[in-house]
Specification:
single chain, about 190 residues, mainly beta, lipopolysaccharide transport protein A fold
């Protein structure tokens, strides 16, 4: 059985197909205006767990209940609803732990800022730092704050207007210190 299609019908189908093909054009800028929002994270994670290592040894371990990563103008990860950072010694043991309710990693600058109920604990010295905001520079392993701080040690409590410390919290400098502490050895003015 042979189907005979008239020329007019064939031209009608041909032009209709061409019209549909060329009429389905999308302007990329209009699509981006509709589909792209700078305030929306590129990644969203629950129960985030990151380990930074060097030569196969863990140096830093980060846990966060929730996190959002943005790659727009700057590469930033925001962590909220609980955050914990463990710092490791060369032998693999945890030397200190940093905890807060909110944190932000600026991947481009190598800086982590934590705030809200911030605690930094050194386990070997049994000392704890409490403040509302800390900034940790990954490049030089320094942690500092210009917020009010409290350092609790077995020998007493120290207060100050800020602090500078290494990430293991083994040595620190309190800005505008106040408080009292028990000294193991009596100091004489001649010794200074």
């Amino acid at each position: 059985m042979k189907i005979n299609i008239s020329k007019n019908y064939f031209y009608l189908i041909f032009f209709f197909s061409i019209w549909i093909f060329y009429s389905c054009e999308n302007d990329i800028t209009s699509i981006q205006k509709i589909a792209f929002n700078n305030d929306t994270p590129d990644e969203s994670t629950k129960k985030l767990h990151i380990i930074y290592s060097d030569s196969s040894y863990a140096q830093i371990e980060i846990y966060a209940e929730n996190s959002e990563t943005f790659h727009n103008k700057r590469h930033i990860t925001k962590m909220y609803d609980s955050l914990r950072v463990n710092f490791f010694s060369k032998d693999g043991s945890i030397t200190s732990t940093l905890s807060a309710l909110y944190g932000e990693i600026d991947h481009d600058k190598g800086i982590i800022t934590v705030r809200d109920s911030v605690r930094l604990k050194n386990f070997a010295k049994n000392q704890t730092l409490q403040t509302e905001k800390l900034i940790w520079n990954q490049k030089d392993s320094m942690i500092y704050s210009v917020s009010q701080v409290i350092v609790k040690t077995p020998k007493g409590n120290l207060y100050g207007a800020g602090i500078k410390t290494k990430q293991d919290f083994s040595h620190y400098e309190i800005l505008q210190p106040k408080g009292s502490i028990i000294l193991e050895k009596e100091l004489k003015f001649e010794d200074l």
